[in-house]
Amino acid sequence: MQPGNFVNNSLQISDDVDWVKGKHHFSFGADWIHNQLNTSSGNNANVLFTFNSQFTGDVLGDFLLGRLSDYTQNSYSQTYFRQNYIELYGQDDIHLTSRLNVHVGLRWEPFSPEVDTANRGASFSPDAFSAGTTSSVFTRAPAGLSFVGDSGIPKGFTNRRLNIFEPPVGFAFDPSGNGKQSIRASYSIGYDNPETYPRGRTDKSLPNLYGRRTVSANKNTGVSRGRCVRRHPAQPQANLHAAMGFELPETSS
């Protein structure tokens, strides 16, 4: 194993304003957060050896003789995620009487998915696969796979949602008027955004697949065979047309 780096930077701008006028206490606010997550992982970059006792009948025996069944080695995998979080709200605490306060408000919190700066990743549709539909961005891709730039495929492979409104309402009531008792109730609808990195390893999706080599030994023939899946470096989408081949991430043994 080699160490992985997960560098997370955030830029935030926010402000809140309160205004008291008569029986009203108005509050307004806005919040904007720009998240940046750069990852570099060396999982199995130092080679993973496997011994399965197929040669001597004993795992330790295979190990001592150096008769491995297979090995796997990966190159570094990288992603560069970006995400924006926006929030606006307004509310009013109304002192209707000496015994009753009412709270009303509205919060707008749209959802913007994370995106990879190199548009790594792919979307698979069973319907498109059954229909034999192929990508217009990578024409040699298998049927059913779509990429950023194909019709109906947004950046981040997730649609934005702007119509997210969260209404909080509530009240506080003093039934006796002496300040010794209170009846309170409230209702609200709330949402939350997933933190950056819910999609994980988009670099493992074709055609931006990171480098991986797997070699397996055959007990009967003694022949070792394997496959090296080429890595297409992160680069502007237009340049990826020049990538050689479109191999599936499979190994042969």
Keywords:
253 residues, mainly beta, four-stranded antiparallel beta sheet, 2 helices, 14 strands, disordered C terminus
Write structural notes for this entry.
The structure is a single chain. This protein is mainly beta and 253 residues long. The protein has helices at 59-65, 126-131, and strands at 2-21, 24-42, 48-50, 70-74, 77-95, 100-108, 115-116, 123-124, 145-146, 165-166, 169-173, 183-187, 212-217, 224-229. Strands 1, 2, 5, 6, 7, 10, 11 and 12 form an 8-stranded antiparallel beta sheet that branches. A hairpin with a 6-residue loop joins strand 13 and strand 14 (224-229). The protein is elongated. Mean pLDDT is 79; it is low at 226-253.
Task: Summarize the topology.
Blueprint: E1 2-21, E2 24-42, E3 48-50, H1 59-65, E4 70-74, E5 77-95, E6 100-108, E7 115-116, E8 123-124, H2 126-131, E9 145-146, E10 165-166, E11 169-173, E12 183-187, E13 212-217, E14 224-229
Antiparallel strand pairs: 1-2, 2-5, 3-4, 4-13, 5-6, 5-7, 6-10, 6-11, 8-9, 11-12, 13-14
Summarize the structure.
By secondary structure, the chain is mainly beta. The chain has helices spanning 59-65, 126-131, and strands at residues 2-21, 24-42, 48-50, 70-74, 77-95, 100-108, 115-116, 123-124, 145-146, 165-166, 169-173, 183-187, 212-217, 224-229.
Oligomeric composition of the shown chains: single chain
Question: Could you tell me how far the N terminus lies from the C terminus, measured between alpha carbons in angstroms?
Answer: 24 Å
Number of strand segments: 14
Low-confidence stretches: 226-253
Tally the helices: what do you get? 2
Per DSSP, what share of the residues sits in E-state strands of 2 or more residues? Answer: 35-45%
Q: What radius of gyration results from the CA coordinates?
A: 28 Å
Shape: elongated
Q: Calculate the mean pLDDT score and round it.
A: 79
Q: Major sheet, described briefly?
A: 8 strands, antiparallel
Category by helix and strand content: mainly beta
Reading the helices and strands in chain order gives EEEHEEEEEHEEEEEE
Helix content: under 10%
